[in-house]
Specification:
The chain is an alpha/beta fold and 259 residues long. The chain contains eleven helices and eleven strands.
Length: 259
């Protein structure tokens, strides 16, 4: 089966527009993965909007290894932990493009993890090239360019579904990142997966296009390649995510599960 045929087997739904706080974003990822895995919603693509800055750390990272909590607090930056692996990243409203894909496992059946990463982000690489960026996929989970890294992806396979999400830098504060994330600094323990150190080349620097224009072009590219219908978050999904914020993603016990 061709790559396009794999995607076209499903009727994809788009969620985009509403902004949420960092812990709510983590919870929505888990809820929507559950819902797709149980067949309660169609395979879905969600573009995130952030209400507040955050350092998002991977499921298997040591909190104190990755984040300078004093600096994060000084800058008003929340720290949250996601359910996928990978490294720490700084996200700020209007400065990143983040999306999630919630898919049946059959979409990537027979692929290695490395192959599935490139497959699930191939439409983005195509879109960036059309926008004039010399972009390609760098195994295992980076979208990069001749000028530097653009974004990174992470995955989890659970609850009967595949969760794949990617964050791309649109604009960055080059001084703030090393203050709050311990990249290039002495680690405090030997626990956890460490973040990779790579030069970042944000999309604003490479295109001079507004963030919204780039995001709209990404959505249009997905729709043209794979088909996409407008969707929305249902009230019960939002309620379930809020409960997960209360019991899990908004708690210190979860954030510091690997101290």
């Amino acid at each position: 089966m061709s790559e396009l045929a794999r995607w076209r087997k499903y009727r994809w739904q788009l969620i985009s527009g509403e902004a949420f706080d960092p812990a709510m974003q983590m919870a929505l990822d888990e809820v929507l993965t559950y819902r797709v895995g149980r067949g309660e919603r169609p395979p879905t693509v969600r573009f995130w909007e952030w209400t507040a800055p955050a350092v998002v750390i991977g499921r298997f990272q040591s909190l104190r290894n990755e984040v300078d909590l004093e600096e994060a607090n000084r800058h008003g930056i929340t720290v949250v932990r996601r359910i996928t692996g990978g490294g720490a990243m700084l996200t700020e409203p209007g400065r990143v493009i983040t999306y999630s894909i919630y898919a049946p496992p059959e979409l990537v059946a027979g692929m290695s993890f490395q192959e599935s990463y490139a497959f699930l982000d191939a439409w983005v690489v195509e879109a960036l090239r059309v926008l004039g960026i010399d972009a390609w996929y760098q195994p295992i989970n980076d979208i990069t360019s001749a000028n530097g890294k653009i974004g990174g992806a992470a995955q989890a396979r659970r609850h009967g579904a595949v969760l794949h999400h990617t964050t791309m830098a649109y604009d960055i504060d080059p001084e703030k990142v090393p203050r709050v994330i311990r990249i290039g600094r002495e680690k405090l323990s030997d626990k956890g997966v460490r973040s990779a150190e790579r030069r970042v080349a944000p999309l604003r620097q490479q295109t001079n296009l507004p963030r919204e224009t780039i995001q709209e072009f990404l959505i249009r590219t997905f729709a043209e390649r794979h088909g996409l219908e407008e969707g929305t978050l249902r009230p019960d999904e939002i309620d379930e995510a809020r409960e997960l914020v209360r019991t899990k993603f908004g708690t210190w016990e979860w954030t510091a599960i690997l101290p």
